[in-house]
Design brief:
single chain, mainly alpha, 2 domains, 19 helices, about 0% strand, globular, Polysacc_synth
Length: about 475
């Protein structure tokens, strides 16, 4: 039950973290227009490279290390401060590097300076600690309040196409304030540690091992926006971000299991219980497949009308781009389960690093010709093929550790259910009246069809749901 509660907390926050900008984006897209949205997307893609350097792989590493030592409060406090010291130093180095970058990059100086607030916020992000101790309630409640305040601020202060800088500042300050709200609990939850007992640099090389895959991952997360801005125009970069935002909203429901399961699996590994680790992976893989497949088909079915209807006039290209990108929902669900939930906790960082590096290389190679010839849609296909490459490599990496037969035993049931759901919903979306009421009806029909098919095919997710209900009623 603890894992389920943490999953729901994490899903709640991840969804809120995306829903807030998603709600505001319907307003912002009209107020700032495609040009303003594109300017934010392009400049944000640049600052993300510096944020990546400041973060230094700490998200995964800190989460895992805290999970290993959480039964010893003194050791946990020592580990926290050692990791945080390294992170602070890396953030300062990133700020200096960014200031040097601004000497040579003179375009959009005001936007870039506003984006630098996101870099400062990184130093105060200690969410990885609460993930390691599996206390998701603290981060969810406090950050949720800040997100809601930021949403109100956007509606109050962003009034016209010249408010791009102010919009960037509001988003960045919400991140900074959200991170700062976590610190009072740190001082309360951790015992005092002597500074002389700290040895932060023992964590540096292990962090670098996880930093490499994060670099590779960011290549095809951020590089697409950057290259679209350079090779096509900044408006195309904005289209990419808006498509990606809707897809990431769906993904939040899936990848939240990775954040929750990583410390849980790591703790089982620390006790040497590998049979339990494998059992958890099989169940998790089935669960993410059961929810990712209908989300992939469902989003693809309504994307052509959803994007322009939601974002407004001038955002028509987002629809086809989103339909292509919907494929990554399943690919990321699978490589999140295999990579974050399995390879990292069992100390197979090398295989994890190679897998995301493979994806990055595929992305870089394909981006130039695909963006050159097909623009926005080319960037989307490059993203999809990159994620397929990551998943394929990870499946090869776990071939001697996991049983493919068990892993994929029921996937066909979810795929068939998804296809049967997709066909009528897509037909309705492209042939019937285009309205919010009709789109809502399409979603409801899709959910009913998929649920009915899963029940009829007796997929494992049904038995797991029944078991959970029985346990809840038993209490």
């Amino acid at each position: 039950m603890r894992v389920i509660k943490n999953y729901l907390y994490n899903v709640g926050y991840q969804v809120l973290a995306i829903i807030v900008p998603l709600i505001t984006s319907a307003y912002v897209s009209r107020v700032l227009r495609p040009e303003g949205v594109g300017a934010n997307a392009f400049t944000n893609s640049i600052i993300q490279y510096f944020i990546l350097f400041a973060s230094m792989g700490i998200g995964y590493y800190g989460n895992r290390q805290i999970a290993y030592v959480r039964d010893n409060r003194t050791k946990m406090a020592q580990t926290f401060w050692e990791i945080q010291i390294v992170k602070t130093i890396m953030t300062l180095a990133s700020i200096i590097a960014f200031e040097i970058f601004l000497i040579f990059y003179t375009r959009q100086f005001d936007y870039m300076l506003a984006q630098s607030l996101n870099l400062i916020a990184v130093a105060f992000d200690v969410s990885w600690f609460y993930e390691g101790v599996e206390n998701f309630k603290v981060t969810v409640l406090k950050n949720s309040l800040v997100k809601i305040v930021s949403m109100i601020a956007i509606f109050l202060f962003i009034k016209g196409p010249y408010d791009v800088t102010l919009y960037i500042i509001v988003l960045a300050l919400s991140t900074l304030l959200g991170n700062l709200t976590l610190w009072p609990d740190i001082y309360r939850d951790l015992p005092k540690i002597k500074i002389k007992s700290l040895n932060p640099w023992i964590h540096f090389l292990p962090m670098v091992e996880l930093f490499v895959p994060q670099i590779a991952t960011q290549v095809y997360v951020q590089l697409n926006r950057t290259m679209l801005g350079v090779m096509v125009n900044e408006t195309a970069s904005g289209y990419y971000q808006y498509s990606d935002s809707l897809v990431k909203l769906i993904l939040a429901l899936v990848t939240a299991t990775g954040t929750v399961m990583l410390p849980h699996v790591a703790n089982a590994v620390s006790h040497g219980d590998m049979k339990k680790v494998n059992r958890m992976l099989y169940k998790s893989f089935d669960f993410v497949s059961a929810i990712a497949i209908p989300m992939m088909f469902g989003l693809a079915a309504i994307s052509l009308t959803l994007a322009p209807k939601y974002y407004g006039p001038g955002y028509g290209p987002v629809g086809p781009a989103m339909m292509i990108e919907s494929i990554v929902i399943l690919m990321i669900a699978w490589n999140n389960a295999l990579g974050v939930q399995y390879l990292l906790p069992i100390h197979h960082q090398k295989q994890f690093t190679i897998s995301v590096t493979v994806g990055a290389v595929i992305n870089i190679i394909l981006n130039f010709p695909l963006i050159y010839f097909y623009g926005l849609n080319g960037a989307m296909w490059s993203t999809v093929l990159s994620e397929i490459g990551v998943t394929m490599y990870q499946l090869i990496a776990v071939r001697g550790l996991l049983s493919y037969k068990i892993l994929f035993s029921s996937i066909w049931k979810y795929i068939i259910s998804g296809i049967i759901m997709f066909l009528p919903v897509f037909w309705m979306n492209t042939h019937l009246k285009d309205s919010w009421l009709m789109m809502g009806l399409e979603v409801v029909i899709g959910v009913v069809i998929y649920t009915a098919m899963v029940l009829m095919l007796r997929a494992p997710i049904v038995d797991e749901a029944k078991k959970l209900v029985r346990e809840k009623l038993g209490k």
